[in-house]
Amino acid sequence: MPPTPTTTIQPATRFATETTEPRFRVRTGGNWQEQAECRRRGGPVDLFFAEETDLTAVATARIVCNACSVRAQCLQFAMESGSEGLWAGTTEVERRRLRVAARAAAS
């Protein structure tokens, strides 16, 4: 069956052996995670879950994110799900600041 605009997807996991229940519906259609540059390159997943103080790892992960065509979907997912790690080139702290700014702009 072809994917529909409301295809349920699983969030990326830290280890290939981990499984999680689907908890997010992609509103933009299709399974965007399959198109993500980080998944397509097949590099070390730990790179995207390094400590924010590991500036080399964060910078390396951002290079991958900057080349990605689905950054908007990735950021939306991370913002709505509260996911750990680097998503769409943003750290958890940066996304927290974006949420605060969005709430302030909405009020």
Mean pLDDT: 77
* Domain tally: 1
- Beta strand count: 2
Q: How big a fraction of the residues is strand?
A: under 5%
Q: What is the overall silhouette?
A: globular
The spatial strand order of the largest sheet comes to: 1-2
Biggest beta sheet attributes: 2 strands, antiparallel
State the helicity in percent bands: 40-55%
Low-confidence parts:
1-29
* Element-by-element helix/strand order: EEHHHH
Instruction: State Rg.
Output: 14 Å
The helix/strand class is mainly alpha
End-to-end distance: 42 Å
The total of helices stands at 4
Structural summary, described in words:
The protein is mainly alpha-helical and 107 residues long. The protein has one domain (32-106). Helix content is 40%, strand content 4%. The protein contains four helices and two strands. It has helices at 37-41, 55-66, 71-81, 92-106; strands at residues 8-9, 24-25. The protein has a two-stranded antiparallel ribbon. The radius of gyration is 14 Å and the shape is globular. The model is unreliable at 1-29 (pLDDT under 50).
Topology summary:
Elements: E1 8-9, E2 24-25, H1 37-41, H2 55-66, H3 71-81, H4 92-106
Antiparallel strand pairs: 1-2
At a glance:
By secondary structure, the protein is mostly helical.
List keywords for this structure.
2 strands, 107 residues, globular, mainly alpha, two-stranded antiparallel ribbon, 4 helices
